[in-house]
Amino acid sequence: MEIITGVERRRRWRDEDKLRVLAEAEQPGARMSEVARRHDISRGLLWYWRRQLRQGRLAARDMAGPVFLPVQVSDAVPPELAAPGVARTDPRIEIVLPDGTCVRVGADVDAAALRRVLTALRR
């Protein structure tokens, strides 16, 4: 026999908690249904959070600390990148993603636009 004493309220999930659950679901060999069951949520909600993340509408508000990425600084331009007879004087930023994708932008790039591009590339 089950006695219901009141109205069950919906849980409120912080973005950080959603991201933690999504990170668990992205682990190699993880199954969305098992992760959802472990956290007592529906698979549909997990897929909804995943879509929110990919659309850039889900982000951690309080990061525990800065995230550092490895950087290589070099003065020499590889010959295959140097255009003959063209000198480039404007500063450039080059971002190489873990999958080898390379993004080159001018130093005057709009930060919001660059964030949207990088979010789209992570999908």
TrEMBL record:
GO terms for molecular function: sequence-specific DNA binding; transposase activity. GO terms for biological process: DNA transposition. SUPFAM superfamilies: TrpR-like. This is Transposase. It comes from Teichococcus oryzae. The lineage of its organism: Bacteria, Pseudomonadati, Pseudomonadota, Alphaproteobacteria, Acetobacterales.
